[in-house]
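Researcher: Last one for today. Full complex below.
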Amino acid sequence: MSDSATWTHEGFEMVVGLEVHVELATETKLFSGSPNRFGDDPNTNIDPVSLGLPGALPVLNRQAVELAMRIGLALNCTVQACTFARKNYFYPDMPKAYQISQYDRPLNIDGHLEIADGIVIGIERAHLEEDTGKSTHIGGSGRIHGSEGSLIDFNRAGVPLVEIVSRPDLRTPEQARQYVNELRAILVEIGASDARMEEGSMRVDANVSVRRPGEEFGTRCEIKNVNSVRSLGRAIDYEARRQVALISDGEVIQQETRHWDESDGRTHTLRTKEDADDYRYFPDPDLVPLDPGAEWINTVRSQLPMLPAARRIRLAEVTGQAADSEAIATVVERRQDDYVVAVVEIGGGAERVLVHVKEAFSEQGSKPSVPATDLAALVAMEVAGELTSTQTKTLLGDLVEQGGGDPKSMAAARGFEAMDTSELDGFVNDAIAADPDAWAKFCAGDGKAMGALVGHVMKASRGQADGKAVTAILNARKG
Amino acid sequence: MSTFQSARSIAASVSTGESSSVDVVSQHLARIEEREEEVHAFNLVLRNEALQSAERIDERIAAGEQVGPLAGVPIALKDNLCTRGIPTTCSSNILNGWRPPYDATVVSRLADAGAVFVGKTNLDEFAMGSSTENSAFGPTRNPLDTSRVPGGSSGGSAAAVAAGFSAMSLGSDTGGSIRQPAALCGVVGVKPTYGAVSRLGLIAFASSLDQIGPFTHDVADAALLLECMAGHDPGDSTSIPHPFPSLSESLDRGVAGLRIGRIVDLPSGADADVAASVDRAFEVLADAGADIIDVTIPAFTYGLTAYYLIAPAEASSNLARYDGVRFGSRVETADTNSMYMATRGEGFGPEVKRRIMLGTYALSAGYYDAYYGKALKVRRLMAQDFATAYESVDALVTPASPSVAFPFGSKTSDPLAMYLCDTYTIPSNLTGHPAMSVPFGAGENGLPIGVQVLAPAMGEPTMFAVAAELERSAGGNHV
Amino acid sequence: MSEQLDRGAVERVAKLARLELSDAELDEATTRLAGMMAHFADIDALELNDVEPMTQPYELVNVLRDDVPLETLDHDEVLAAAPDATDGRFGVPPILGLEL
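Model: Here's the assembly. Have a good evening.
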C-alpha cells in the first residue's frame, strides 16, 4: 500500500467516494414512538409504524431533525427546506416494502470535511432516512446463500439514520480512513451518534473506480460490508487493484455492487446493474415538507460544540506542539483536550501535561478522575526539578489509580526528595571514575557516551537523580 | 326519503332514558337479521359486542353519567377502518383473519361519543371500485332494488344506513367512494376537507386522496357525526391543526345571499334524469334566495386521468406491505421472492392487481415524468381552476353520480366505464376540498338521485347550509 | 403519451410489483392497461411546463413530534398474527433473488 499522499498502481489512480450511514442518538424512532435502543430482545421495540401495519402513519421526530441539522452544519453544508420520498423495494427486513428517505430535496447539501494535509473532501448531501430491521440467516453458516431461511427482528426498523454522501474526492485508502475517523470524531463530538462501526451504528459503503490521472472517471463499483476502518482501507486497495488488473487485461469494468469478505480479503459480486431495482421514488404523501428556517438553523449552529479540527488547533496553540502530531490527535480523539487546557491554565508545563495525559490517561474518558489541580501540581514539581521524570511517572500512576491526591505528600510518602547538587556531583565523580572510556568519548564529542554515564548515576542513586540535572553537570564539566 | 329514526333522536331518547340503548341496538340487529342475507352489507356483524356496549351505555346513563352526543347510536364501520382485536379485511383475502392491534382514531372518537358499533361493512377490495362488486367476499346489494349495485367502494356502509341496519355509518372516499354510493342508496354522504378527519387507522388506498366521512339518513345527522370525528390528530401528519368549524348553526341558515356556482364546462355524461334533478336543485336554491352564477373549471375534465395515475401510484406503494411476512395470508414457497409473488398473486383480486400494475408503471424509471409527474401538475391546474371559481362563488352544485343505481355486471367488463362513475366526484379528492351528496329527487324506476354540493377547503359550514336547503326543498328532513 | 404498453412491459411491471400472474391474466392486463393508457393521453394536450406539481391537497409544513417514547405493541400479540414466527422473530424462506 502506498502512503497517504499517493496511491498509484500501474499508472492508475483510485477515485473513491464514501456513503456513510449513521444511526442518530435519539430516544425514539424517526417516525414513531418506539424506543431507539440497541440490544433489546427481538421485536420488543415495535409499533404499528415500525412494523408497517395497515393504517399506520408516520410522524417526524423533531430531535432526529435537529441531530441531522447538527451533522449538516458541522460538515459545512447548506441546510435547506426538504421533502421525504418513498424508495420502493421488497425485502423482508423492510416492513412497508418502501423506505422513507429523502431524494430530490435532501436536508443538507454541499458541505465539506477537511482531512490531513489540508485536503478537503466534498460532501454532496447528508439526508435523513429510516433504518431497516435485521435479518438473521439460519443454516448455511449464517450467510444468505445456502441458508434454510431467515428470521427478522424489527427493533431497528425505523431507527433514524443520516446518510452522508461524499463526493468522489478521495484518492488513497489512507485518506478514506482519515475521512471516516474525522467524520466519526465529529459525530461523537456533536452528540449525533455513537458512530460505532462494530455495532453497526456507523456503516460505510465505498464507491471505487480507477483512472489514469487527468482522465474521465471510470466505471465504479460499490463495496458493501466493510465493518471497520482498517477493513475499509484494505477493501478499497483490493478493489482498485482488481479493477486495474481487469483494465490491464483489456476487460471492461461492470458497474456492480460488491461484498467485502473479511476472511479472504477480497470483494465478490453481490449484484450487477442489470438486476438493480427500479426504486420508483415519489414524494411520501403521508408526510409534509420540512422547512427548518433561519431561526432554527441559527439556534442549532450556535449550540454546536467546538469541533475536533478546531480542538486540535487550540490544543496545538496551548501546548506548542504541531496540530497533526500524534499526541494532539490522540488527546482530542479521547476528548481530553478540555482537561489538558484546564491543567495548563492552572500550572503551565503544557508540553509535559500533554505527554502525561496521552501516556497515562488512555483508560480515562473525557472527564479524567484526577482533578486538574492535582495534575497541575505534579507537573509544577517536575518542571521545577523537584521530581525526576521517573518519579513523576510513578506519582502519575498513583494519581490515576487513586483518582487524585496531593503530589507533595505523595512524593514525601514515597521518599522522593530532590537531591542537592553536592550529592549529585558525588555521583557524577563516581560515574567518571567507573567508566573513563565513556568519559573520554563524551569529551571527544560522542553524545551517545553520555547515556552510559547517566546510567551509572541513575543506578548509583537508585533512580532518585534527575536525569536533566545530571546531563547539565556533565555538559558543564566537559567545558 | 328514509323512514328510519335519526341518530339525533336516538341519542336524545337514550340520553334521557326515554328508550334504552339495548332496545335501539336490538331493533337494528333485528333488521339486520331480517335482510342482511339479501343485502350483504356486512363482512362481520358485531352482535354480541354491540349488545354489550349498549348495556354499558344504559348502565352509565342509569348512573347519571353524560355518555356523549352519539349515546347509544348504532354505527357501522367500513371494513378498512382498524378495530382493535376485531377482524379488519378491506374485503381482501390477503388480510383475511387479521385483527389489528389498535383502533383507528375515528373509532376511538366515536366510541368516546357513546356510539355502538354494529358491524364492519363490505367494500370493493381495498376501496378500489364503484359498485362493491370487487369484494373478495361477494357483492353488496342495493337495499332499494337488490338487482342493482349500492355503488362503491363504501357500498356496504351506504346500504347499512339505507336498510336501517345502522343509524349512521363511516365510509372512506378516495375518488367518490362515499358520495357515489350515498347517491345510489338515497342517503347523505360527506367527504370532508382533506385533513379534517384523521386517517390514522384507515387502511390506505391513496394517502393524498383518502378521507373518512359519514353516511346518514339526513344532513343534520351528517353534521353531528362529522363534528364528533373531525379535529386535529397529532398521529396523522396531514391532519389540519386548527379546530374544525361548528356545523349545527349552518343547518338553518338557508341560502339567502349565497353565491352558488353552476359549472358550465362540466364533462357531459350524466343521464337525463340526473341532469334534470340538478337543474331542479338550482331552481329551488334560486327560489330560496341564492344567486346562481355560471363558472368554468376547464381542468375538471382531466380529473379522471390525473386521478387514475395518482391514486394507483400511491396504492402500488401503500399495498406493497402485504407481503406475507408480518401479518395476513402467505402462500408457502421455496424462497422469499416466489413467496411474495405467490402471496400477492393469490391474495389480491383482479382490480387491485390492475391498479397496482398501473401505478407501478406510472412511477417506474423513464415513465415518472410522463405519467405521475404530469398528473401532479394537472392536479395543480385543478386546484387553481377551483380557486378561481371560488373567487366568485361560495359553493358549487353538480351531479354526484352520472346515473342512478345500475344493475349488477353492467360495468364490470370495462374498467373505464366503471371509472366514469367517478367523473363528478374525483376533482374534490384531487383538490382536497369538501363535497357531499344529498338525496334530491328520483329517476329511473323511482331510484334516488344524489346532488353534489362542493365548497372550498374547510368550507363545510357553507356546504351544509346548501345541502340542508336542498333537503328541505326535497322534503327529506325529518326530526 | 409515450410508447404503447406491451405484454413485455406488463410482465416487467408485474415482477416489479411482485405479482404472480397467469398467462391469461397477463394478456388481459395488457389489453386493459393499454386501453387505459390510451384514454389517459388526453392530458398530453395540456401545457404544463410552468406548473408546479401538487403533492399535498392541504399544504402543511413542519409537522413534528417530540422525541418521547410511546407505548409499544405487545410482542406476543404481534407475533401471533405472523404467518411464521420463530424465536420471537418473523420467519421467511431463504432470501434469494432479492439481495441488496
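Residues 256 and 335 of chain A are 40 Å apart (CA to CA). Chain A has a mean pLDDT of 92.
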